[in-house]
Specification:
Order of helices and strands: HHHHHHHHHHHHHHHHHHHH
Radius of gyration: 23 Å
Distance between the termini: 52 Å
Helix content: over 70%
Number of helices: 20
Number of domains: 1
Shape: globular
Strand content: under 5%
Structural class: mainly alpha
Length: about 450
């Protein structure tokens, strides 16, 4: 099991330094992100780094994004930081660091590398086909089915991306074309809607699994990470212009926009484009707006949104008619004091929600507790892989919302609970009933024969 004690000690130390403001906030923030990235870079060699990805995104959006905003400003005044840097980081640094320290309390699952080495079987290809078909059917049902079942259909539609992982590990000669096919609908939908969060998250997660199907040298691994960073950065640079054209119903091509912004306008060297990219990763401006508005204009919620999130994640909308709506608009407007246009949704993020409920000190305590809860849920999910390593393919379905730093707690908990139910139920159905392995089918047949023809006790 991988020892994470050095990371935990470092995060706690950096958080304490940030809370007393005795060192440069820029240096402390960069150090936090560097630690998270190093753990991700190293961890990918031995396991699927869900925790490490979560840490990278949180430190990037809550700490590094605000550094860029304070240094260079924003292309839109609405996305400026609303308080001075020392006022922001005195909460954001310890809040982020203690959250990350809690995430790292459980040892890394370094044995996953051995699991993944021995998972290649042809039957995985056919299970992937079944999951792909189920995902397509769910996507169709989402468009025509009742609104009360929309979230269930959204979850089921994501089985296509789980199918991509099955294809990659199948060893089948058509594994790569089918894996690309499984992800194509996500690319098309992102291009049509100009919303790229799901694309970045799912492609990153599937790429982590693909990483374990290939032999890597240190230079090749460095290239792999560099290309991933460049792709994400390109999306951040072109996203604002592309989204404006798409939402304005103009004729636009994603590839043409990339060529225009990166090649013609030299987006990697254009200050305005870089500011826009920094603005896209910065979630600190929302947290800073909350810190201005609460408790001056809006009192601390005192755990109200936490309780609502827990209740909403447990009870379905069919049972709970006034169930909390996901999307973030209600909490965003309430706690920031800012208005959103109709149809626009922004999450407060869990860091912002922590301050809105409890203030500075108790908010940091809550972030640590939430980190423990997240890590505990992850540990429970991983324990199931000890019984059947194939369940490792379903882990992203449980955590893909939780690893986002901009998502509020009601969305995260809803995904964790419903995603866990779907992952466990879907895994059992696919592996035990729809396409069981030969050994499982033989065991089931033998059990049925024994039940129909019980043996008589032997006579002496």
């Amino acid at each position: 099991m991988g020892n994470r004690t050095p990371y935990i000690s470092a995060f706690i130390t950096l958080g304490i330094l940030g809370s007393f403001q005795v060192f440069s906030n820029d240096i402390l923030s960069i150090a936090v992100f560097a630690l998270a990235f190093i753990s991700f870079y190293k961890g990918l060699d031995t396991h699927i780094p869900i925790i490490e990805i979560t840490a990278c995104i949180a430190s990037l959006q809550w700490l590094i994004g605000p550094i860029i905003a304070y240094a260079y400003g924003s292309t839109d005044i609405r996305y400026e930081m609303y308080i001075e840097a020392d006022q922001y980081y005195v909460f954001a640094l310890p809040g982020t660091c203690f959250y990350l320290a809690a995430l790292y309390l459980f040892p890394a699952e370094v044995q996953q590398k051995e699991f993944l080495k021995g998972l290649g079987q042809p039957i995985l290809f056919y299970r992937g086909v079944a999951l792909f078909i189920l995902g397509i059917l769910a996507d169709i049902a989402l468009r025509f089915g009742p609104g009360s079942l929309a979230f269930a259909f959204v979850l089921l539609s994501q089985l296509r991306y789980v199918a991509a992982i099955y294809f990659l590990f199948s060893g089948h000669r058509w594994r790569y074309p089918f894996a690309v096919l499984a992800m194509t609908s996500l690319v098309v939908r992102s291009a049509e809607s100009a919303m790229f969060h799901d694309l970045i998250i799912w492609v990153s997660l599937v790429a982590c699994y693909w990483f374990h199907t290939v032999k890597w040298t240190p230079p090749k691994k460095a290239v792999f990470f560099s290309l991933g960073f460049i792709c994400v950065f390109v999306i951040q640079i072109i996203k604002a212009d592309y989204r404006e054209k798409v939402w304005g119903r103009q004729e636009v091509s994603l590839l043409a926009t990339v060529y225009e912004k990166i090649v013609l306008q030299q987006g990697f060297f254009n200050k305005h484009a870089l500011m826009a990219a920094g603005q896209r990763i910065n979630q600190g401006w929302i947290v800073s707006a909350i810190m201005v508005n609460v408790p001056l204009a809006e009192p601390y919620a005192g755990g109200e949104t936490i309780k609502d999130a827990v209740i909403s994640s447990i009870f379905p909308r069919a049972v709970m008619k006034n169930k909390k709506q996901a999307g973030g608009q209600e909490n965003f407007e309430r706690f920031t004091g800012l208005n959103l246009e109709n149809g626009t949704s922004m999450g407060t993020s869990i860091l912002g929600e922590a301050y809105a409920n409890f203030g500075r000190f108790k908010g940091v305590v809550f972030m640590f507790i939430w980190g423990l809860c997240y890590a505990g849920i992850y540990k429970l999910a991983i324990r199931f892989t000890y019984k059947d390593a194939y369940f490792l393919f379903w882990i992203p379905l449980i955590f893909y919302q939780a690893i986002k730093a901009e998502t509020e707690l009601v969305v995260v908990l809803n995904q964790l609970v419903k995603g866990s139910i779907l992952a466990l139920g879907g895994f059992i159905c696919i592996h035990k009933f729809i396409i069981p392995s030969d050994e499982e089918a033989d065991d089931e047949e033998l059990t049925n024969q024994e039940e129909e023809n019980p043996q008589l006790p032997e006579s002496n």
